[in-house]
Amino acid sequence: MSDEQNAKQDALVPLGERGLITQSSGLVKRGLELIGGERVVHFPCDYSVGILLVHDLDHPNLPDQRVDACSDVVIRGAKRLHLLIRRTTPLGLSFLSKLEPNDIQELNLYRIQFGEDDWQYIEHLTGLQKLVLFQTNMSDAGLRYIRQLSELSRLDLSITDVTDAGVEHIQNLKMLSYLSLAGTKISDAGLIYLQDHRNLSTVNLIGTDISNLGLRYLQRLNSLESLWLNHTIIDNAGLQHLHGMTALKELGLGRTNIGDLGLTYLMDLGGLGNLDLSTTSVGNVGLAYLKALRNLEELNLSSTQITDTGLAAIIEFVQLKRLDLSSNFISNVGLGYLEALHNLEELNLSSTQITDTELVDIREVGQLKKLDLSSNSISNVALGYLEALHNLEELNLSSTKVTDIGMTAIRELGRLKRLYLGSTKISDVGLAHLRDLSLEELDLSNTRVSDAGLVQLWGLNGLEFLDLSGTNTTERGLSALKHSLPNCEIS
Known about the structure:
The protein is an alpha/beta fold. It has twelve helices and 22 strands. It has a 20-stranded mixed β-sheet, with no helix packed on it. Strand 15, helix 7 (332-336) and strand 16 (346-348) form a beta-alpha-beta unit.
């Protein structure tokens, strides 16, 4: 699968939830305390079906034990089992028929394709609490096999062939607290089947065909804390249906048809901590409507109509930790307001047309841990202002005018872990200034680096990822570097 395809699919998953696809979640101990002593979980003897993560419920702080899902696996005590199927198996999902109903609590089939007849083998796993079917070929017909899984609290159907008819099969799963239908073929009609799911706390509808009409069916979900509506056709009128959702903490409205007027319906959602307004018509007036949202910790204003004038309202968001202003016209006047945000840790100024002079005040935001300055006309002069950012852990300078000389300022950032210098004029000379940093990720793609400079990287023992694509390095130079950095992924 290409990087472009992966990026499009990642866009269907809110940033804060991407880890939920593959990580074991903190599900409840419902019924598992009855499984004491010793039990045996039966898997095929002649091949592995994936990885079994074993979580100790009596010692929840211990890391999950990873076990090969092959042959008989002995489980002692109260454990939650998370089965990750990594590939299509010789006999499809038929091996699941050998499992007892309560053997596994989580089943992850992320991006694995099975036959239509395979879904029947899930039906008897009534102890399942989490089911991930992200980018599988699950269809409406297949969903009928999960309608009896009454313990299910988390269900991910992202990028499947599910339509409105399929959603009807899950209307009786009243324990559901998390549901993702991102990238499916559902429309407003499918949301009718969700209106009585009072336990739902997270609903992901990114990239679906829902409209203002469909939001009416969600306004009864009083427990809803996270709602993702990005890449839909909802507009200002649709937001009136969110007015009473006072439990909301996260709301995604990026790439919708909303503007300033629609934000008046959000003024009373004082519990909002994360708001995505990227690629909308929201401007300075709209941002002023949000002044009452004092609990905001993350605000995405990328590609909006916000200017320096509108950023005057930003000082009201005293809890703000993450702010995305990329692809807006921002100057030093607007950046000056950021000094009041004493909790700000992440700032994205990519493609804002800022220059060296306009970055002078950035040194006043000394608590920053992550800063993106990519695709701007800044030079080495601007890097001198960054020396005051002693807490910086990630810095993106890709597609800027920085050169080797500017790296003398970078070496003063002792906590830096991730540095992106792609498409700059950095050469072998500049690498000498990076050798004392504790970097974990380094992007040098499309720079002037050659084999001669790679020796400067040999001592970066903590490096986990290095991008040298589009450079003047050779296979011989890369081979020597890989020998020095055996634990680093080099592309």
